[in-house]
Amino acid sequence: MSARGRTAPRVGGRLSGSAGVRAVVRGMRLRGPRTVRWRLTLLYSSLFVVAGALLLAFTYLLYAHNSAGQAATTLEGPRLESGVPGPDAAPTVTAVVAAVRADQRHQLLVEACVALAVMALASLALGWLMAGRVLSPLRAMTASARRISADNLHERLAVPGPDDELKAVADTFDAVLARLEGAFEAQKQFVANASHELRTPLTLQQTIVDVTLADPDAPAQVLRAALARVRAAGQEQERLIDALLTLARSQRGLETREFVDLATVVEERLRGVELSVRARLESAPVLGDPQLVERLVVNLTDNAVRHNLPAGEGSWVSVWTGLDARGRPGLRIENSGPVIAADQAAGLFQPFRRLGAERIGKRDGRREGLGLGMSIVAAVVAAHGGRVRARTRPQGGLVVEVSLPPYVPPYAPAEHRSPAHSAPVV
Fold first, then answer.
1. What are the percentages of helix, strand and coil residues in the chain, rounded to 5?
2. Between the CA of residue 27 and those of 24, 33, 132, 157, what are the distances in Å?
3. How many Å apart are CA 7 and CA 25, to the nearest integer?
4. What's the rounded mean pLDDT across residues 310-320?
5. When comparing pLDDT for 93 and 352, which is higher?
6. Distance (Å) of CA 302 to CA 152, 280, 380
7. pLDDT value at position 341?
8. For residue 359, is pLDDT > 80?
9. Residue-wise over 311-327: b if at least 16 C-beta within 10 A, else e?
């Protein structure tokens, strides 16, 4: 069979005469040059060939330079009377040595090229094996990652070994899995809580209807009272659904960004508050969604008013807006109220988290708090790139501090470029 009729693996085997080169060619045929292993093999081989060629060229130049610089001894034949060598003069030793050395340089060049070609083929096999050894942790990580799904997010890659780049990648992936597991658990808990919160008014409505229908002689007054209670339960469902939609919208991110002054929003919200309010409102420009910022202020003020001491027992609310020491716009709301444990303040930002029955007020037979107000606040602040922190007061009550990213002044409207303004509310 001619060389042209042979297949690629057999040609590789014929050239190298080793199983390693046959494995390289077989892998090239099966996987193609698009795999990382094959690209690393080509990179290793190319670097070896370039380094070998430079080394051989440098060695050849040194050999040629030393050959040309050596002194040669000549043997002259008989000369004529004019001093010119005769026609039968013997050839010089220098010419013979130069011809011999030229043949040696040529032979050295040929042998060096053959050796470089053989070693280039060997480097392909070694490069293929070394690339496979380097990439074997990645293959193990890929296989482990493919086995992980939403049902077993608790599993981790847990790659052993020294703290190198591959272990850093594995540890980063494990950290991402931990965050995903926490997000999935929070989502499951949120769905369970939302289902429970939505089912409660539905169960109440069904019970009221069943009890009313069980009495065929129920007077009109009883029927009207039952309808009023059903309507109240429906309104509670509507409030809960609106709160869930607001929470989902704030978690989705900002769709519009406009200039908003927290001082103006808070000042409008505090009008009509029956409690004693101490306000120090300085300009706090924010670039964000006006509706979400308004919802942030409404939830915080309503929470401060609702979860407070009863009227006539010294209840109060303190509000501050302005720029902090780093120039970031902020909002701080402080109120009186029942004593809250310090370790329970962070849990207020979790959906449907309520701190005991004393924080679930009722008015007209229905709950005032849905358990979503503070979680909406946290989602709105996160959507704007800020931070929110809550801390308890030893005397009772809560302090909530909101800090948002600084506003870029060139985009502010002319009427909002004044440094500050105060609007005390009593």
1. 60, 10, 30
2. 5, 9, 11, 28
3. 10
4. 84
5. 352
6. 41, 18, 16
7. 84
8. no
9. eeeebbbbbbbbbeeee
